[in-house]
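Please check this chain.
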Amino acid sequence: MPLIDVFNGDADGICALHQLRLDAPADSRLVTGPKRDISLLKRVEAQSGDRVTVLDIALSKNRDALDRLLEAGAQVRYFDHHQPGDIPVHPNFEPHIDTDANVCTSLLVNRHLQGRHLAWAVVAAFGDNLADAARQAAVPLSLSADQLAQLQLLGECLNYNGYGETLDDLFFDPADLYRQLRPFADPFAFIAESPAYPTLKTGYREDMARAVAVEPMEARASGRIFMLPAEKWARRISGVFGNWLAVESPAQAHAVLTAKPEGGYLVSVRAPLVARSGADELCSQFDGGGRRGAAGINHLPESELGRFIALFFKTFE
């Protein structure tokens, strides 16, 4: 019975799959891509008897492909925390969907697995900028402050690798990064032994240093907007920089616009951490999406920049 694992290329998607396959080892076909490549189900061909697991991609953006797979007789289980739209009812469909702002897909998988690989769920929650939820989930592990800091940096580095417009922007194809995680049941062993981790950590620190040096293009009490150049380092750091800004100033909303070589902008939006709402509604008005606390736009035309800025401040004021 063929197995197909479809997962977002960020920390949450990778760690969600890692937990499931630690619990039930199996060889499967991997379907993934950069974090913003979320219409992944359209790449899946399956038939009666095939089992498809989908992790951390919005059902609303994959509904037509999901219906096609179910009609073909495939069994689909779906773990996600984004706004789903209408959830289908079908004998071959097993949804695990929760849009609570303090939940990520890996925490849903951890719930499903009853905590059997909890440390990796903690890594993912840190990577998804859910630091409070990560620390709360980690309580049964009795970790020191230093150990928690190590898991937080790991999550941030795994998440950082997922950003970029194409695979060429990334240090590792997310499928390859998952394969590097696969031998490690213990994230601390991965930190100590993986050759991939020093590469990610160095890249993350260098790119973040460049981003932190950028001044906001517009700043008000309710939020700040930053503009990054059309360079690989900027595309890699855009989302993680947004997370950093949100933590640095939790009462403000943030938008990070990254210029695209062909024109227009890639946009990451973070709602204030004290409220965690509005980001998805704002981005949906520009054909983007995400969740209430964090969302994005894959292509904002230059002609729409003024409207975006106005709606950003209207949304968060």
Remarks:
- The mean pLDDT is 96.
